Amino acid sequence: MKSVRASAPATVANVSCGFDIFGFAVASPADEVVVTLTDKPGVVIREIVGDDGRLPLDASRNTSGVAVIEFLKAIKSEQGAEITLYKHLALGSGMGSSAASSVAALVAINHLHGEPLSRKELLPFAMESERIACGSAHADNVAPSLLGGFVLIRGYDPLDVTSIPTPAGLFCTLVHPHLELKTEDSRRVLKATIPIKDAITQWGNIAGLVVGLMKPDFGLIGRSLKDVVAEPIRSVLIPGFDRIKEEAVKAGALGCGISGSGPTIFALSTDAATAQRVGEAMQAQFTDLKLKSDVFVSEINNAGAKIL
Amino acid sequence: MKSVRASAPATVANVSCGFDIFGFAVASPADEVVVTLTDKPGVVIREIVGDDGRLPLDASRNTSGVAVIEFLKAIKSEQGAEITLYKHLALGSGMGSSAASSVAALVAINHLHGEPLSRKELLPFAMESERIACGSAHADNVAPSLLGGFVLIRGYDPLDVTSIPTPAGLFCTLVHPHLELKTEDSRRVLKATIPIKDAITQWGNIAGLVVGLMKPDFGLIGRSLKDVVAEPIRSVLIPGFDRIKEEAVKAGALGCGISGSGPTIFALSTDAATAQRVGEAMQAQFTDLKLKSDVFVSEINNAGAKIL
């Protein structure tokens, strides 16, 4: 039967000031899948490599499985699929692990069926699998993983997704400490209301970030990478956060913040060497706290998920 | 003595979703001043035309006077100035009336002194006169009146002001009902905290508006021109608001909202004829409510204040 291998990248949701509406894709790490068409209906997860047996093999409870089930339903296919999932993204890391798996599977199954749907049309299926993974059908990881680059989710009713041009030479450092935070838990610590003063600061910054990216104006990007809403609350869950952020900026980063709901921390820099140095400075802080961590340095990934 | 005439345009602050951080300038109406250098120190308001005697002639209590006083102090001038102010903007209209007077005076006095300061450097003086006029040194009217076009005030500490490219062919309709709202009163009705859900909607929209302007993407501009924070509260002070907004969009406007703190209502359209038609539709609603109103239609003013 026809078979294809696809990969979908890690993503940074929120990007400090863009809580719940903004995200971007990096080049690595990325999840991979091999999807094979089957003659009989039904979706089977054949194997998951790299999750230490923690993810469900039941397709209806696995994000890659749910995405493919929803896709096949939508195109009224009578065929089924088998999925092998190679997890390279750590679970509960804040790098969009669940999103990467479902997006890779979607891009693969769409390819096997001759690309009946555009990347944007695949979004609702990926969002549906986010609902399975973390309780709400948010798009700030799946959209950049599918579309690449920086993506704005203006609103959900109806879904309004826009790609934002990425300035050349923007590099991301991800430092993932070996801790695990569940998005649900991390959302629970947020407050239901916020001071209007903070809200105004936040929307000044997200507007500044978008203008900075589009002009481009790296200084403005740096000044805008501030989060007065989620970070002050969530950063308490990440040991050494304030110090790490300080060290990242001291090492030359434009700015630094929590990737998604954490504990991974991201930083943006204007060249690869700085991004590497920033990663070392950040990791050194975790090492001081006796926390192991992984560092990933890559350019912003403008292509998103791809067929391998 | 040396004398010069200058004008500064009306402005739309907030622009629906950009509460307190965003504004743009229109071509008309505009305030005018004639400023004359004097040999002895001190600033004198010689005459104000068009205010029905309502604005203070005491320079230290008049926005144009305060701006010039602050400017002369900053450049350590030993000369003084006489100001004649031609008010074309209605007071308490939500079109940046106080800002236009101070900006016109500043541009004039800066010109008379050989332009020692850039437009951006004039901003703090204009902001100081906003403090006199409405109790807080906000920049969302003075910045676009000085700089022209759309202006983002990312933050105040320190002041961070960025001009945003205006797409060609964007027209503004202003409809000013003969009512008066004081910015202070209009601010007082706002709540000190807002639901985080509304805050997220608002920053999705301001990001969308900025992306829409810069791409440009007129559909996205229209979808983003929504205010879930100030408009639902402030619009109650403007008779017929919801209906007027509906009629504006029905007549072809991209979107419509309160200009500054009101009661003037603005709409954006993609050509002059539509902007005119939108104005007529909006005015007809006020007329139905037995309210007189003025309609102003003009292209976005990218130049801002000017020497005449």
Automatic annotation (TrEMBL), chains A, B:
> Key word Amino-acid biosynthesis present in the record?
yes
Q: What is its EC number?
A: 2.7.1.39
Homology family? Belongs to the GHMP kinase family. Homoserine kinase subfamily.
- List ligand-binding residues for ATP: 90-100
| Reaction(s) catalysed by this chain's protein | L-homoserine + ATP = O-phospho-L-homoserine + ADP + H(+)
- Keyword flag Ribonucleoprotein: no
- What keywords are annotated for this sequence in UniProt? Amino-acid biosynthesis, ATP-binding, Cytoplasm, Kinase, Nucleotide-binding, Threonine biosynthesis, Transferase
This one is known as Homoserine kinase
Role noted for this protein: Catalyzes the ATP-dependent phosphorylation of L-homoserine to L-homoserine phosphate.
Query: What does the UniProt entry say about where the protein is found?
Result: Cytoplasm
Q: Which organism's genome codes for this protein?
A: Dawidia cretensis
Gene (UniProt): thrB
* Every GHMP kinase N-terminal domain range: 68-149
Q: Which GO terms describe its molecular function?
A: ATP binding; homoserine kinase activity
